[in-house]
Amino acid sequence: MTRRMRTGIAAMVLVLVLSTGGGVVVYQSAQAFGFLEAILGRTIVRTISLRESEVRDRRNVNVRRDAEIAEIDLRLQAVEVQVRNGRLSADEADQERARYEAQKEAVEARALRERQVVSFQTRQRIRSELRSAIPDAIKVATGADPRAIDLLVGILEGRNPLQTAIAVAVSGGSSPVDPRQQFRDLQAQLREVERAASAFRGAQGIAIRARVREALGEVTGIVDADAPPPDDKISRLQELESQIQAALQQATNISRDLFPGSEGIDRSRFATNERWAALNAAVESLGGPNPNRDLSSAVLRTAVADVADLAAAQGLELTGEEIDRIAADVLAAWVEDRKGGKQGEVPFDEMVNSALNQGLAVAGRDPLPPVRSPLPPAAGEPPAQPTPTTAPTATPRPLPTATEEGGDETPETTPTLTATTTSTSTSTSTATPTGPTSTPTNTSTPTATATNTSTPTATPTPTEEATPTATATATTAAITNFAGYWAASDCSPARYEVALSQSGDQVTGTISFHRCPGGGRATYSVSGTATSSESVVLSGPRVSTMGDPGGLPDTTPPQGTFTITRNAPPSPNYGAP
What pTM was computed for the model? Predict the structure, then answer.
């Protein structure tokens, strides 16, 4: 059985004895086992617990590191999706990959520093607890003079207070009245030390008290003698001081075997460490993704495509440089619009039209018509009718034997008629990049059904009154585009992250949640169908989890259904604080 195992068994026995009763039990245990043994036993038990905490906290540092690196890997996957969707160029993708790889290295370095800080601070905490526990326990057990207790504790901590006192006594001070006064003070101090040392029982306590009494005897001999203190007595005092120090130092030696411990891994614990702060700043500076930069790339590409389409629809011939310049103006207008804090849908088509008109004005050409769609009606108001830009056209097809109004017929012999007239009005409003074009078309198509009767002479009698019926048909609203990336910014990793792609009305992607701080991770792979609504319902399975039990791995369902609105948290938001 090793010494560490024996120490652990002894500690378990001592914790049963010392776990209740506070100071009274401490004192009784000191009387039964020896006070020094009782103090060391309690310290060993606390140290074993703290050592287990340190191991657990270092492991949690690694778990957090692995989760952060896995999060960065997800962002690297998002870069690949953006490349496939044309949202990032090859150069931009390379820059993002390099940034994320550098961030992974910074996360590794920060985790290494956190483990080092955990071990260092734990050792400091154990030493501090040992220094405070011993004098407090001695005071409870003996009521000795605090100065004498400080002397013992100073020896325990490696200082030499007794040797210092002897040196002061020998020197006699700057202007001593009595050359033996310093030794009288030392004599009184050693008597208090002897009283304090009575708390130490067992073999070690006997040795300590014996050496203290020897030191007291030597000092008493010096004080009582008439002659100056002989050198051999001073040498004996110094020898005794070193023996006392060696006896008490054993407490520190035993505790050093079990020093590891910890205080937890909250990031505030490391904030005062300059090296860690520098590494943390490096991680934050490389953090991302940068949604504004990614989104700006997408806006610029969309603007280039829209300007080219609009120019082609109007029969305009623009060079590639002209299209790029106009698209850059669109991007600048879009950025300014977002800076203004405007809410709702950005009038992107209007920005494209305005930028193109500026280019046409420079070339001395006529501007394009406005393209801003009409605003939706207020609650309780009828929908706004489109303003026609061309005159309505009517295409009547008159019957040869009947009028639409059902007038008299001139032939003498005319069959009885059943006249049915249907008027169909079709209004079509179409918004295109060139401007809204509304073409209401009224079509009146009278039809007549003739029925022969046996009466040779008949008067046309309409059996059903002609009733025009108007039918309004509007074009289907455009499908809302939900493709993009957005995330919360109040925590790292983000409390939620949404990365979506869209083909037609089919939306697919991932939604990740992080219970910040330290509540774990959960990621869903989702899909759904978009409409013209500002939100879309996406559902799918939970594909990955990270973190300790009790966090998001346990509180999130295996199958999730979420309501998504662009640039807003998903609902439900499992990462909400």
Answer: 0.32
